[in-house]
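Why do we bother with holo predictions? Because pocket geometry can differ from the apo form. Keep that in mind while you read this record for zinc ion.
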Amino acid sequence: MRTAGLDYESQALVERELPEPRPVSGEEVLLRVREVGVCGTDRELASFRLGFPPAGESFLVLGHEALARVVEAGPGVKALKPGDWVVPIVRRACRPACPSCARGRRDLCLTGKALERGIFGLHGYFAEYAVDAETDLVRVPEALLKSAVLIEPLSVVEKVVERALRIHEPGASTALVFGAGPIGLLAAMVFQLRGLRTAIFSLEPPDHPRARLAAAAGVEYLTALGSRKADIVIEATGAAEAALTGLRSLATLGVLGVLGSPDAQGEIPFRDMLVKNQAMFGSVNASPVAFTRALEDLPRMNAKVLDGMIRRVRFGDFAATIPAVAGETAKVVHVIE
Ligand code: BGC
Ligand code: ZN
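The structure, written out:
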């Protein structure tokens, strides 16, 4: 079958023919992958700054944001049947399972040895077929198919939003999201659904397609912060300084969730943080509850905006799309014909 991934010997992003993953046993299902979304993580992977191939191999199939259809179910599979649509969960528990992984919260893995499909040590879904355990798949209703490829990134957003809201005392009423990429747009829409007054702060001019999507979603769009403060700030830019700017944009009691600034460096205003009872946290991956919320929230979001967020391209376009993920449209999705 056709796959797209990384060759760690030649340090190149390439297409490669691999054997189809069969047969399926026990609680496994065979999937025909239909769509794969790409994100900043794939770009990082393709520049060999992140990730690694499966043990003993020098090739990693990319793709962690997928929509697939069940074509065959093993004898032990309970809830899925051929024809069902699914979105895979990205992370797999560490072994032996740490307390977090053991209680089903592999997103909170304590050892750092959890693997991730298409990222850390496991092949991803940029392929015609894949096999997964039933428990690693989330079933998607037909009505959500058009934007279902957004469920995985949305689950990452749901986790950070839920935690920020939980930490804020006595309850947040304003949110500021840094970044108008897919994560930023989805985060803003989730805050709106939770009833918060929400704005996006990003550098693209107001007539940029992504800024227009924010406006179409009814989210205030700012290209300058001024003295703006919010109860919750979510940093979703990938820019190093944004997390620190986020801290300075917190209201008293404010909570900052950091998603995208791994290399942020600078002075943290601890005095301000303590006298204003502020909090800051990082977040990665998603919990099972976050996936449930994603399934609930997706149909409540503006369908036109979700549509407008996606640009579908062909399988073979990956060499152009992955190194240049931040383009005009929010989310590039490869259709695996
Ligand atoms: C994925 C997450 C993953 C993270 C770190 C993101 O792009 O959506 O599921 O945990 O990258 O590898
Ligand atoms: Zn991603």
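Residues 241 and 264 are 6 Å apart (CA to CA).
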